[in-house]
Amino acid sequence: MIKINLIPAEERRDIKGFGELLIGLLVIVALFAGIAALHIVQSNNMKEVETKFQKTEKEIKSLEAIKIRVDEFKAKNLELKRRIEIINTLERNRTGPLFVMDALASAMPAKAWIDEFSESGMKAKMVGIADNEFTVADLMESLQASPYFKTVELGVIKKTTMRKQQLRSFALHSRLDYTGGKNIKPKKPINKNNKAKNLKKPDPKKVNK
């Protein structure tokens, strides 16, 4: 079959140009629509990110407030502990010496006495007189059994004459514990008739003449 286009050539060119223009416009519109859609998606994403950021920022501020309260609590707790320690120290210093002297008096054998008692830096020095070195050993044993005296050591022991009697002058050294050994297990009462096995007796041969 033979088709004959009766539209003039100029009109055909106009129609073709209009079609191409229409297609171009449609492409541009589609391009702008795509850009608009992409912009809307990105805007929504930005809003979501901003919302999450604001929420996270609020949570951080809330945690900072909690941290400030925790730090304040820690500071108050440290201050409270410091005050309690000061009170405990004052209490030990107030009552400790009384218990120490009472323990010393209770530990003294019948034939011994203390002429001098000095304390410095929780260390005590006791100077006294006894009838013999065994009485000094009994005193050391009794002091060692007391919770207020720690590591009782013999400094010196020597012969001395008093009222025409041969006696022994001695010096003892010991650490003091004003708390009374609250964290130490109580020791069994000492039987003065049985000398402690782990306590060294003064050697009579080493007594200064």
Instruction: State the name of the first-level CATH class of the domain at 108-206.
Output: Alpha Beta
| β-strand number | 4
Rg computed from alpha carbons, rounded to a whole number of angstroms: 50 Å
Strand content: 15-25%
* Major sheet: arrangement of strands: 1-2-4-3
Mean pLDDT, all residues: 77
The biggest sheet, with number of strands, parallel, antiparallel or mixed sense and barrel status, is:
4 strands, antiparallel
CATH topology of the domain at 108-206: Gyrase A, domain 2
CATH architectural grouping of the domain at 108-206: 2-Layer Sandwich
Question: Structural class of the helix and strand makeup?
Answer: alpha+beta
SSE string? HEEHEE
Q: Estimate the global geometry from the Cα principal axes.
A: rod-shaped
Instruction: Tell me the distance between the termini.
Output: 158 Å
Spans of at least 5 consecutive residues whose pLDDT stays below 50 are: 183-199, 204-209
Helix content: 40-55%
Quaternary form: single chain
Please characterize this protein's 3D structure.
Helix 1 (9-107) packs antiparallel against helix 2 (133-145). The protein has a domain at 108-206: Gyrase A, domain 2, CATH 3.30.1360. It is rod-shaped. The chain has helices spanning 9-107, 133-145; strands spanning 112-120, 123-130, 149-162, 165-176. Strand 3 and strand 4 form a beta hairpin. The chain is α+β, with helices and mostly antiparallel strands. Strands 1-2-4-3 form a 4-stranded antiparallel beta sheet, with helices on one face. The protein contains 2 helices and 4 strands; from the N terminus they run αββαββ. The model is unreliable at 183-199 and 204-209 (pLDDT under 50). 12% of the residues are buried. The chain starts with 8 loop residues before the first helix and ends in a 33-residue tail after the last strand.
